[in-house]
Structure formats: structure tokens, C-alpha cells
Write a structure and sequence with these properties.
Blueprint: H1 11-19, E1 28-29, E2 79-81, E3 95-101, H2 106-122, E4 127-133, H3 143-152, E5 159-161, H4 166-170, E6 175-176, E7 178-182, E8 188-193, H5 198-211, E9 237-238, E10 258-261, E11 272-280, E12 285-299, E13 301-308, E14 315-321, E15 324-325, E16 335-338, E17 341-346, E18 350-356, E19 362-370, E20 375-382
Parallel strand pairs: 3-4, 4-5
Antiparallel strand pairs: 1-6, 2-5, 3-7, 7-8, 9-20, 10-11, 11-12, 12-19, 12-20, 13-18, 13-20, 14-15, 14-17, 14-19, 16-17
């Protein structure tokens, strides 16, 4: 989920320079092929040059460089939520932050307390935040799922559903989350990929508002966290065959077909195993009866992107850590307990919080036992 030479002028080159700082942890990388170049394209040349890509996200003075002369269009948007359709022309006169995100991405979810705060603080001061929701998984294309997510996350700013990657490709973007900050004249002035540097991003919002003649005297948003991303040793791990890694069941994966899997006696760090009947697809593995999945992780938080079709109804899966019920101080927000056991109730497709050790990092094995068919498991993520 996380990712120096003279800088190239394409956004992809900027991204690669940054992401080496936090591979697998701070940002979520897409695997789609490049379609366009935004920063430095022939039709939209960079004005000036960023001298040190490794410091592109640092606050290095009162004036931000001009990275591109115009905002790309909102291309291929399926629909708009919380707003009528927006255009770059209509946003002229506003300082605008374009935030690429997707609702099951843990990195994006950890960024939302900041983006929602910035929207509330600066909306009436000439600032517009636009969330471009570009899906990673098929279920994230469903408008009702996104609507539920923005309600649960208290997102009041405009959200564009970029289901066909039209706007993503117009920016040549590769990351969730990704922030593109434009001044009131529609020029790109700042880019940030991944989590972190929130004080710098907010400081740059304030600078551009000041350039536009708006006085801003507000303390920067601060969110309390026990997370130490440097202590996380487990990468985001996909379960579907297209991007799977660390698969330890002795059976060879049968693509798009039902098969019974078994777990090895032990799991090494960052290995996962399936047990019981599963059908492993490109994006996810789906239970076809009683089945289980295990993962040996080193982290403080464990999440699993999964879900069940509405018509199948909810199901309750038992969750254990190191073979026992999840201890009280380690239970994620989606864990419940009864009869001396711990469970997760699975309904709609989303990210489920299973382990939350409140900043205590260690190596453990999580196991989820599903009682029946119809649950799709997509990816483990960690914090």
C-alpha cells in the first residue's frame, strides 16, 4: 500500500521520487497503464522546475512553484455526489484541492479526518475540496456503496465518481490518496502522494488563499494517533490471483474455479493461507461453504476488505488471534464478543477493522472462520 536523479516533468516521475519514502505504508499504488501525462505534457508545460523531488512536499518558502498552467477536465465522471457537476472553468477564483481516493483504501480513510476538517474550515473562505473517487475494486463502482461511505465518513464536499478512470488518467495519477492543489487562477502549485505531511498541505492551502486576498488565521488540524508506520512490516496483501502474494496453502490456486484448500502447519511472516472451499477470482476469493483464511502479520492494526451481497444477508465469522479470542485491548471496531469468542459481522463490501492494538506492535496470526458461502475477501491492510 506504500512506495532521486534529476526530476522528470511527468507526474509519474514525481510520484516515483516520493513513494520510495514509504513503500507499502503511506500510499496505495494502482497497476493500470499510463494514459496521459499531466504535469509537463506538451499542451500543459511546467513553468519552472522542481529542483529537488525528494523535498517536493516540504514547506520551502512563502511562494509555491507553478507546476502546471491549468487544471485538467473532470473526464468520464459517472455522477456527482454532494454537488452539481463541476468544471475547471467554474472553479476559477477558488483555491481547489483535488483529492483522489477510494472508500475501502485504509490510507484514504486515515486521511479523511484532515480533508473533512479542511473543507469545514476553509469552505467559506474561497476554498473547494473535490474528492475524485476512483475505484480499485468493482464494488466501489456502485453508487449506493459510495453514498453510504460518504455518509458514514461525514464527507460534505463534492465527490466525483470516476468509475472509468477518465479523470485519473487525465492527471496520469497512480496513487490513493493523491492531492493536487490549484491556486485561484487554476494553476497547479503543490502535489502530495500518500499519507502524512498534513500540516504542509494545510499550510499551502493557507498560502494560496492569502495569495487570493483571503486572510486566514487558523490553527492547523491535528489528529491524535498512536500509529507508527515505521513499525509496520506487513504490506497490503491481495487475495485475488491478479495481485496475490505470500500464498502458503499447499494447493495451487485454481483460477475462477471452486477448490478445497488446506493450511500449512505454520505460517511465516506475511504469509496467508486458505482453508475449506473457495473460488479465487482476479480481485477476490469467495467462500463456497465453510471456509477460513489466516495471515501472519507484524503490525498494530489489521483490516480486511471484504463483503457479502445484500441478497445473501449478513453473516458472522469467528476471528481469532494466535488461536484464541481476540483480547479486549486488541479488538478492532468491527469485532464483537459473545460466548467467550470474538466475531465480525459481515454485510456490505467495505474495509473491516479486526485488530487494533492501540500502538502496540508485534507479530501474530489472525484467522477468520466463515460459516458459509458468499463472502468475498479482497485484501489485508495494516497499520
Amino acid at each position: 500500500m506504500q512506495r532521486h536523479t534529476q526530476i522528470g516533468i511527468a507526474v509519474a516521475a514525481i510520484a516515483l521520487a516520493f513513494v520510495g519514502m514509504a513503500q507499502y505504508v503511506s500510499t496505495h499504488t494502482a497497476t493500470l497503464p499510463a494514459q496521459n501525462s499531466f504535469v509537463g505534457s506538451a499542451s500543459n508545460p511546467v513553468v519552472g522546475q522542481i529542483p529537488n523531488p525528494g523535498k517536493m512536499n516540504e514547506d520551502d518558502g512563502d511562494t509555491l512553484p507553478i507546476l502546471a498552467n491549468a487544471m485538467p477536465p473532470f473526464s468520464g465522471i459517472a455522477s456527482w455526489l454532494n454537488s452539481q457537476p463541476l468544471t475547471p472553468e467554474g472553479l476559477r477564483g477558488k483555491v481547489t484541492l483535488i483529492d483522489f481516493w477510494t472508500y475501502s483504501c485504509i490510507n484514504c480513510l486515515r486521511t479523511l479526518p484532515y480533508t473533512t476538517s479542511w473543507d469545514q474550515k476553509y469552505r467559506d473562505k474561497g476554498f473547494v475540496l473535490v474528492g475524485v473517487h476512483t475505484p480499485e475494486f468493482a464494488f466501489e463502482k456502485v453508487e449506493s456503496n459510495v453514498r453510504n461511505a460518504i455518509t458514514q465518513q461525514h464527507i460534505a464536499y463534492p465527490v466525483a465518481l470516476d468509475n472509468d478512470y477518465g479523470t485519473w488518467n487525465a492527471y496520469n495519477n497512480r496513487y490513493w490518496p493523491a492531492e493536487y492543489l490549484f491556486d485561484a487562477e487554476g494553476r497547479l502549485r503543490y502535489v502530495h502522494f500518500g499519507e502524512g505531511n498534513y500540516d504542509v498541505t494545510e499550510g499551502n492551502i493557507q498560502k494560496l488563499l492569502a495569495e487570493a486576498g483571503v486572510t486566514v488565521d487558523m490553527a492547523k488540524t491535528s489528529v491524535s494517533s498512536t500509529m507508527n508506520l515505521d513499525a509496520v512490516r506487513s504490506p497490503e496483501t491481495y487475495i485475488g490471483y491478479a495481485r496475490s502474494a505470500g500464498f502458503a496453502s499447499p494447493e495451487r490456486v485454481l483460477k475462477d474455479g471452486e477448490q478445497t484448500y488446506t493450511a500449512p502447519k505454520t505460517l511465516a511472516e506475511n504469509e496467508l493461507a486458505l482453508e475449506g472451499k473457495w473460488s479465487v477470482g482476479e480481485e477476490e476469493a469467495e467462500t463456497r461453504g465453510s471456509a477460513a483464511i489466516s495471515y501472519r502479520f507484524t503490525a498494530s492494526n489489521v483490516n480486511l476488505v471484504m463483503g457479502r451481497d445484500n441478497e445473501a444477508g449478513a453473516t458472522e465469522a469467528e476471528v481469532t488471534m494466535d488461536g484464541k479470542a481476540v483480547p479486549v485491548d486488541f479488538r478492532g471496531k468491527d469485532i464483537t464478543a459473545h460466548d467467550g469468542k470474538t466475531f465480525v459481522r459481515i454485510t456490505n463490501h467495505r474495509l473491516y477493522s479486526l485488530i487494533d492494538a492501540q500502538g502496540i506492535y508485534g507479530t501474530h496470526t489472525i484467522r477468520i472462520q466463515f460459516p458459509d458461502a458468499g463472502v468475498g475477501a479482497y485484501a489485508f491492510t495494516f497499520g
